[in-house]
Records
---
Amino acid sequence: MQTITALDPLRRAVAALRADGPLALVPTMGALHQGHLALVRAGKARAAHVAVSIFVNPRQFGAGEDLDAYPRQLARDSELLAAEGVSLLWAPDAATMYPAGYATNVSVAGVSEPLDGAARPGHFDGVATVVAKLFQQVRPDIALFGEKDWQQLAVIRRMARDLDFTRPQVDAIVGVPTVREADGLAMSSRNAYLTPDERVRAAALPRALGAAAEAIRAGAPVAPALAAARAALAEAGFAAPDYLDLRDGESLAPLVRAAAGARLFVAARLGKARLIDNIAV
Ligand code: PAF
């Protein structure tokens, strides 16, 4: 596996890989877990080579968020990726990604606005900007993202279509199902912020979401099903959720009753960790 930190060698390396067949990109912020490795494996199944980027992107963190605390473990991540047969690790620093005078922002209207867009103003501009830059830099044939960040996936799909990063008819932005711990908690680099006791209680989140989805699917009215989920989260020690909503999985428009493509979305804080999850209804 080549590890590259500057743009010129990156361009040469990706040209050589692309000459050998399709190239998949897995963008990450590092602190890799099995969810990321599932993205790498899905990339390997679809392309001749997989490139992984590791960049903790300051533009997607708001003031007072966890940019400084975000786990950074490049040596360990690099070993994990080499063992998975990744061809290229792209690990630029902030000055390479955003040189002095950098002034361009990519903003996706609509799907960026509700849920995490409302709870974390500017977050999806930061995500869309860095992913657009990564697509320009690596020029992958496909890119893989986890469905745990469902709204992020919707934002990136919209941006890739709008800015012609992908061709119509080609499913180049691939969503990979959420990888969960044995108790159902979605894998996330931010789970590291949970104390051992909080880690046990965190399983209430996927449990509450699953119970609400099942009730709604079985015909229960939405509001009481969501109220029961809120109560279960409060009992487990979560703060009031930033959101706990039933929405259309594609447009992210709010729904008042179950419909084809409906999903439940939640973001809630437990101690220092802000956990997000979503599930099909
Ligand atoms: O999902 C992430 O880890 C990040 O939001 C991404 C897509 C790598 C952009 O920084």
Note: The beta strands are 2-4, 23-28, 49-54, 88-90, 142-146, 173-176, 243-248, 262-270, 273-280.
---
Amino acid sequence: MENQVGLSKQRLGRRVVLFPVPLQGHINPMLQLASILHSRGFSIAIIHTRFNSPNPSKYPHFAFHSIDDGLLGSNASGEEIDNVLVLLRLINKNCTGSFRDCLTRLLSDGTKEPIACLITDAHLHFTQAIADSLKLPRIVLRTSNISSFLIFAAYPLLQEKGFISNQDPQSEAPLLDFPSVKVKDIPIIFTSNPEGLYEVIGTFIKQMKASSGIIWNTFSELEQSELVALAQHFPLPIFPIGPFHKYFTASSSSLLAQERSSISWLDLQKPKSVLYVSFGSIAAIDETDFIEMAWGLANSKQQFLWVVRPGTIRGSEWLEALPKWFLEAVGERGHIVKWAPQHEVLAHPATGAFWTHCGWNSTLESICEGVPMICSPSFGDQMVDARYVDGVWKIGMLLEDAMERGKIERAIQRVLVDKDGEEMRERIAVLKKKVNLCLKEGGSSYRSLGSLVSYILSF
Ligand code: UDP
């Protein structure tokens, strides 16, 4: 898969410094971006926190620089949205000194190639002031899609119009300038700390506007009108160069061990017969929802590969809440793992549908493999991603409201077996073709990557 778009091996004599948010869904795209830029001839330095540190031995061609994050002893486990907010706030507060020292050291190291720019996750907004003071251009990587980002960016307007404070969680009404999205999809309501969320969103958007450009893990054909809207609100260089994992997979940046039994089990199944179930690296569910999921999967009579990440079920270590009858009733029809090699699973011929939380990486990975989705979003941009999968791209269905076994059973039947699902599969196959074209010479992402490389070299 590496270098499939014919990337140059020529060295450019410039370094790029990258700094990811230490969460799986953010580390993966940042390290993929680093690999893409390396393959285009840049040398790579990665600054990272000690918390969820990437494994340098998987990237011998990068220089890794660990900084003090002051996270030890905090309760920032990253397991739920409130903790993610805590984590982001702590990093933005605690890392100022250590990040500045590290970057200053790298800039003054005359034995290495000169540094062209800094690329950080959009959430690491404190880095803009430091980059400015060191006269180093900062480019932002936004790891969500553009569609959901535009709603975050419209947040002050939504707040002013009362959509936030008086949001009706049941409202099916279209949301202002976003007719594809419903009022109930506004990502804000699911946090117990709305003020913290408002602050995070407001600050990171302000500092994105102050940056030298924005890189997106998406492709223009998927979000054409959203790209136009983005350019109106963010008059900065914009680089939609995705999907990143089509250049380099994320297996080297996985924080958890990927269970190979997922693939050997899939090898035994018929083509397009398996439902792959995974809710990503952060989302957590209540025990009652987990039990409804188990009933729905058992009653569906379909094959399934289920990722139950330790910590997914609130109050349980792993599978203690699984009803005793479940494994016996399901037998060889189901396979449960703690973490899967997701790219390989989605690309496997036996995988017929993906029941996902609609994190942007998972959604994009599913599109790239032409696998239709059942969507159970949990928080943040996932609600909007799910709405687009269901209502705009029509490549999956959104499971609305609470988990309920009958509803789950019908959704599995619809997406995996029925004609409806077949039509979703046809539509997503068209998108898959577009992905392959956009990465080829002359394609939209290929050209955008070329512009990004020239832009970085112009600094
Ligand atoms: N992933 C994986 N194995 C799993 C589940 C997820 O490798 O069993 C990877 C997946 O391929 C994706 C990332 O973890 O790249 C999850 O990112 P996403 O944006 O989908 O969700 P998040 O974890 O940030 O909520």
Note: The longest strand covers residues 43-49.
